[in-house]
């Protein structure tokens, strides 16, 4: 397993944030999601420091769908990030974490009237419009309130990014945004420009998630900038901002070649600066919305091994005390992960295992094939890079309790989401 951030081997086994996994299990139980705060901090600093230039302001909005909890979002806020939310629930969490409305970008392809009302009540200042009806829905509410907000229109630049089918978002038949290849889009822009309550800042595009090819982002940026030129000519308007979304691929397993943010972010900004100037555009601010690349490698899930089993066909299973309920990604996207026995890292890896959870589903497999020392009941299995889209997509299937989540740094751990209890499970049940 590749060690990330502050993970290191010691005589006490695997340490994260200078705390041993064994000690953390003792204190919080398992399954336990452990976030390495120093790694989140350094990723955030990287985005902020590298995505900047003399002429263009870079703004980094954390895509909170990757993992949203008040404690985590408060940290993101203190690190100087803005936040991207796409439901009342994500907004509620961001507001409790102290984000002011001018730092919140409101997304979604089907914003409900009541969600828009709630967002306006909370002072959200920027909305990303997905399609024509949303223009009317939002404008009607603003008319009543006599209130003006900033908007971006989400456009689909039709860039094919090489990633899993389910997480591509800019194919021509995607449900997100309006295609720049239809005439229709100009009448939507006309409506927005004609509405006194909507202040069009520019366009938003997000071409997909877990993308490794840097060229896809440059291609998308060029397409989007060409579209700005087109729009400015047609409507003689100048648009001050652009939002290029997130999607920067990260390392999960051997063979993944993640985007090298240290060089990529500076290169992207330099490219934008040149291309904006070349086209005579007035863009002064560019927003990025990283989710996975801020939190994925910082998070790991610690499980306790229960039984092991060798099937008639010779397959070795190692069972852990969680599974697809706390991490549905392997089942949903065939996602692959690395892991280690955190209490026996020095021992030789002698046995092939399939790591399976405890849910009543054959697809409840966390890792298809991994070499480990011969596993024993009570061992600690740490699966790395589970910081994005795991807890946020967790379920209570089989009425399993959702794990606790902690932040660790410099020998100190802080609980940010407590473990669910049986009472939490039935809190919505109507018991007669
Ligand atoms: N901005 C928008 C508008 C998005 O839809 C997303 C992700 C992001 C930013 C952040 O993308 P990131 O930097 O995290 O790649 N559940 C899937 C991922 C779905 C991504 C949805 N949108 C998974 O587990 O792989």
Q: Describe the sheet with the most strands.
A: 9 strands, mixed
Counting DSSP E segments of at least 2 residues, the number of strands comes to 21
Number of H/I helices: 12
What small molecules does the structure contain?
ligand LLP
Mean pLDDT: 96
The share of residues in extended strands comes to 15-25%
Which percent range fits the helix content?
Answer: 25-40%
Could you say which overall geometry the principal axes of the C-alpha atoms support? globular
The separation of the N and C termini measures: 50 Å
Class derived from helix and strand content = alpha/beta
Low-confidence stretches: none
Rg from Cα:
23 Å
Explain briefly what this protein structure is.
The chain has helices at 21-28, 37-50, 70-78, 88-96, 113-121, 132-145, 184-194, 214-235, 261-278, 292-295, 329-333, 422-425, and strands spanning 8-10, 13-16, 19-20, 32-36, 57-63, 82-85, 104-106, 126-129, 149-156, 178-179, 198-204, 241-243, 285-288, 299-310, 316-320, 339-341, 351-356, 365-372, 380-384, 404-409, 412-417. By secondary structure, the protein is of the alpha/beta class.
Can you describe what's shown?
This protein has helices at about 20-30, 35-50, 70-80, 90-95, 115-120, 130-145, 185-195, 215-235, 260-280, 290-295, 330-335, 420-425; strands at about 10, 15, 20, 30-35, 55-65, 80-85, 105, 125-130, 150-155, 180, 200-205, 240-245, 285-290, 300-310, 315-320, 340, 350-355, 365-370, 380-385, 405-410, 410-415. By secondary structure, it is of the alpha/beta class. Helix content is about 30%, strand content about 25%. Helix 8 (about 215-235) packs parallel to helix 9 (about 260-280). The strands form 3 sheets. Strands 4, 14, 15, 16, 17, 18, 19, 20 and 21 form a 9-stranded mixed sheet that branches. The chain has an 8-stranded parallel β-barrel with strand order 5-6-7-8-9-11-12-13, surrounded by 5 helices. A hairpin with a 2-residue loop joins strand 1 (about 10) and strand 2 (about 15). The protein binds ligand LLP. Ligand LLP binds near residues 210, 293 and 388.
């Amino acid at each position: 397993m590749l060690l990330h951030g502050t993970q290191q081997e010691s005589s006490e086994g695997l340490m994260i944030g200078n705390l041993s996994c064994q000690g953390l299990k003792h204190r919080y139980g398992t399954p336990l999601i452990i976030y390495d705060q120093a790694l989140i901090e350094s990723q955030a600093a990287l985005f902020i420091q590298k995505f900047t230039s003399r002429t263009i302001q870079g703004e980094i909005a954390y895509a909170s769908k990757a993992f949203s909890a008040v404690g985590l979002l408060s940290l993101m806020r203190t690190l100087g990030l803005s936040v991207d939310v796409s439901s009342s629930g994500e907004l509620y969490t961001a507001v409790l974490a102290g984000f002011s409305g001018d730092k919140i970008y409101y997304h979604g392809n089907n914003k409900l009237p009541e969600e828009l009302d709630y967002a306006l009540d909370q002072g959200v200042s920027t909305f990303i419009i997905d399609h024509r009806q949303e223009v009317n829905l939002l404008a009607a509410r603003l008319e009543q309130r006599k209130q003006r907000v900033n908007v971006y229109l989400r456009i689909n630049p039709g860039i094919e990014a090489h990633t899993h089918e389910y997480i591509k978002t800019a194919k021509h038949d995607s449900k997100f945004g309006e295609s720049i290849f239809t005439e229709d889009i100009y009448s939507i822009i006309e409506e927005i420009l004609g509405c006194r309550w909507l202040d069009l800042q520019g366009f938003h595009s997000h071409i997909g998630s877990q993308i490794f090819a840097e060229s896809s982002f440059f291609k998308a940026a060029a397409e989007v900038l060409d579209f700005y030129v087109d729009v400015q000519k047609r409507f003689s308007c100048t648009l001050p901002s652009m939002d290029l979304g997130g999607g920067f691929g990260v390392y999960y397993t051997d063979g993944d070649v993640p985007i090298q943010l240290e060089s990529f972010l500076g290169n992207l900004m330099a490219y934008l600066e040149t291309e904006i100037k070349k086209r005579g555009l007035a863009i002064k601010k560019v927003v990025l919305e990283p989710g996975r690349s801020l939190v994925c490698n910082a998070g790991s899930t610690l499980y306790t091994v229960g039984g092991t089993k060798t099937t008639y066909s010779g397959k070795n299973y190692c069972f852990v005390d969680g599974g697809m309920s706390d991490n549905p990604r392997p089942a949903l996207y065939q996602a692959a992960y690395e892991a280690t026995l955190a209490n026996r890292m020095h021992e030789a890896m002698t046995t092939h295992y399939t790591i399976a959870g405890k849910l009543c589903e054959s697809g409840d497999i966390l890792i298809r094939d991994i070499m480990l020392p011969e596993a024993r009941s009570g061992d600690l299995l740490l699966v790395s890079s589970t910081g994005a889209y795991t807890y946020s997509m967790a379920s209570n299937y089989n009425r399993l309790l959702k794990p606790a989540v902690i932040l660790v740094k410099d020998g100190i751990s802080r609980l940010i989401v407590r473990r669910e209890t049986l009472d939490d499970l039935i809190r919505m049940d109507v018991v007669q």
